[in-house]
Write a structure and sequence with these properties.
Pfam family, one: TatD_DNase
Strand content: 15-25%
CATH architecture: Alpha-Beta Barrel
Subcellular location: Cytoplasm
Protein name: 3'-5' ssDNA/RNA exonuclease TatD
CATH superfamily: Metal-dependent hydrolases
Oligomer: single chain
Shape: globular
Bound molecules: zinc ion
Subunit structure: Monomer.
Function: 3'-5' exonuclease that prefers single-stranded DNA and RNA. May play a role in the H(2)O(2)-induced DNA damage repair.
Number of domains: 1
Number of strands: 8
Number of helices: 9
Radius of gyration: 17 Å
Distance between the termini: 15 Å
């Protein structure tokens, strides 16, 4: 089972990164993608992936929260990083109209520029969309024929939005958000609509600790070693076996990100 969304560069992992990776391996995780959210963290993510070659890979990109930092220098940094064998996707990039930490115009500009970069480099993209579906789809659509693959990570949208994303050919990343008994119920009902070859799972650690783990972990920090819980719950809600789902999401991640 492959975790496609681990924010391993987070300061929440500063004191025990190696142990976090080891605990994930011991829990049966077969690989992970370390998320880059700005130029500096994309560099850190690449180095961490290099240290764990064959188990960790990374993305290089600028999250919509950081879109106001976008510059030609940052574009060159990402381009340089993308040459490294561990860097397998451009992102995370996209639009976030929920928190609006960067202006909408800046977000769209940085998103479009990263899609252009991915197309130029022939790399898949790791996408973020929060409360911005219409603009997200409008910016993304013209680039899709030029991209070798795309995943909308941490999907939390509506049924219409899911159908639109699937219609555009996107793969869909599901996090432990779906385990939340307050806000995950709508998403839970959508799980069976995602074709088996388009589904990916992720912890988004250290964020989004699944709320239905029993016994409850003592810390609120999420870890990739909790991926088996998400696999188990998603398999139950899809009416599938957890073992088959674990194998399937590993295969899907390796295919999408073209891993050895
Ligand atoms: Zn995200």
């Amino acid at each position: 089972m492959f975790d496609i969304g681990v924010n391993l560069t987070s300061t929440q992992f500063a004191s025990d990164r190696q142990k976090v990776v080891k605990r994930a391996r011991d829990a049966g995780v077969t690989g992970m993608l370390i998320t880059g959210t700005n130029a500096l963290e994309s560099q850190q993510a690449q180095r961490l992936a290099e240290d764990q070659a064959g188990f960790c890979w990374s993305t290089a990109g600028v999250h919509p929260h950081h879109a106001s930092e976008w510059s030609t220098e940052i574009a060159s940094t990402l381009r340089r990083l993308a040459e490294k064998p561990e860097v397998v996707a451009i992102g995370e990039c996209g639009l976030d109209f929920n928190r609006n930490l960067s202006a909408h115009e800046q977000q769209e500009y940085a998103f479009d520029a990263q899609l252009a970069l991915a197309a130029e480099l022939n790399m898949p993209v790791f996408l973020h969309c929060r409360e911005a579906h219409a603009r997200f789809a409008a910016v993304l659509a013209p680039w899709l024929p030029k991209l070798p693959g795309a995943v909308i990570h941490c999907f939390t949208g509506t049924r219409d939005e899911l159908e639109a994303c699937l219609g555009m050919g996107l793969s869909v990343g599901i996090t432990g958000w779906v385990c939340d008994e307050r806000r995950g119920l709508e998403l839970r009902e959508l799980l069976p609509l995602i074709p088996a070859d388009r589904l990916l799972l992720e912890t988004d650690a250290p964020y989004l600790l699944p709320r239905d783990m029993r016994p409850r972990p003592t810390s609120r920090r999420n870890e990739p070693c909790f991926l088996p819980h998400i696999v188990h719950q998603v398999a139950t809600w899809r009416g599938e076996s957890a073992e088959e789902l674990a194998t399937r999401i590993d295969h899907n991640a390796r295919t999408l990100f073209r891993l050895a």
